[in-house]
Amino acid sequence: MSAQPRRIRLKPWLLAQVNSGRYAGLQWLSAEHRLFRVPWKHATRHTPASDEENTIFKAWALETGKYQEGVDEPDPAKWKANLRCALNKSREFQLKYDGTKETPVQPYKIYEVCEQSEGTDAVDDDEEEMPNLMELSINPRISDPPPFSSRTFGHVVPMCSELQDQGGMVDQGRLSNRLQELNSLPLPAASALPGPAPMMETSSMGDVQHHQPCKYDLLSSVPLTDLDLKFQYRGRTVGSLLVSNPQGCRLYSGHLEPSPEQVDLFGPVTLQQVLFPGTSEVQNQKQRFYTDALLDVMDRGLILEIWEQDIYAVRLCQCKVFWSGPGTPEHGPPNPLEREKKIKVFSLNDFLQGLILFQRGEAPNPPPFEIYFCFGEDWPDKKPKEKKLIIVQVVPVVARILTEMFSGELSWSTDSIRLQISNPDVKDRTVEQFKELQRLLQSQHIQGPWTPNVP
């Protein structure tokens, strides 16, 4: 059995290992020492020991006391998970590229070193005061939760189906009633780029081939009902998800699945079912205890229903839920969701009207569109989101895209764009040599057989 785990500050230790050159493939990618590459081959319990003898993952396990050579059984997969968790939790590193999710797989990840004030390191437990269990907002347990009328959920006939073509793209003609005024406004130069419209991130080029050909009009590919979800446990992102179900989703914890006979308990079966992330990666024991207490009463969940591109929330779970978003005071009093009551939390028409006013110069800022749900604690209040046990951020993708288009801030970060390029083969290297020869000839004003004649 391994010794008691030791607290080790991740940042100085890891940067020292990168500088040491001791581990193959662990190296700096930028001269200013901001980006570095970590080799990330798939490891299992059956990986030959010789392949795992000199890795950064084993070194971290040894350094933190979670593995003792000659005492514990080697577990390369666990070593890798330990370092991955530490990096994900640390505010001093940010994942910029994950090659293990590419097709074909690229066995490495790229991280950026982030500047933080001294003394902040995710490996140290957060010893700040946790809320008292009795203060968590949970409805008293009752032996049999009262059913509610299925009329709480409208008969969903998603307008999105009437606006999309066979490939799932939005039909610009049918969308004109909602976006006619937006279309008539001049687009910023940044949004008038030639070529296909930006697409949502895909896992491989094969996924892209199943879509209809992209259209040059950016508005033709705006996903009206997609939702971006981000789960945060005391300020640390523990999961994210793109929901593309045109009817919405149910956020829940536990093992109870909906059925046509239990709509009153769990909502429509047509909703996408989204599980809350577990707490296995939460290091602070108090935080894990209180978070589990909340997750334990989220079996029925929170419904996010889409109706005519507006978003409605229905709280079913015993855990109380508070929210903030467009139309709510930024520093107002706590804003609870009444149980089993449908509340509109986002209006597409109101957002579009606000965007039009901003584009005309009649409003100083684009309209807000982010929605926050806080589980089991008052929100909003004087505490920042980073201090709340469970926060779920919901972003209507259509609002984010339109805001970027009309504010001239199209997002081209490495987090949202994954270039799909194969490793060069012999023919590719030959073509590169031809290109280099062409550049040399052009620099000397000599035309080669492959150089086009320019009149």
From TrEMBL:
Question: What GO molecular functions are on record for this protein?
Answer: DNA-binding transcription factor activity, RNA polymerase II-specific; RNA polymerase II cis-regulatory region sequence-specific DNA binding
Residue ranges of domain IRF tryptophan pentad repeat in the record: 7-115
Q: Which InterPro entries does the record cross-reference, listed alphabetically?
A: Interferon_reg_fact_DNA-bd_dom, Interferon_reg_factor-3, SMAD-like_dom_sf, SMAD_FHA_dom_sf, WH-like_DNA-bd_sf, WH_DNA-bd_sf
Name the GO terms of the biological process aspect: immune system process; positive regulation of transcription by RNA polymerase II
Listed SMART domains? IRF, IRF-3
Name its cellular compartments. Cytoplasm; Nucleus
According to UniProt, the name of this protein is Interferon regulatory factor 5
Q: What is the lineage of its organism?
A: Eukaryota, Metazoa, Chordata, Craniata, Vertebrata
- From the UniProt record, report the name of the gene that encodes this protein: irf5
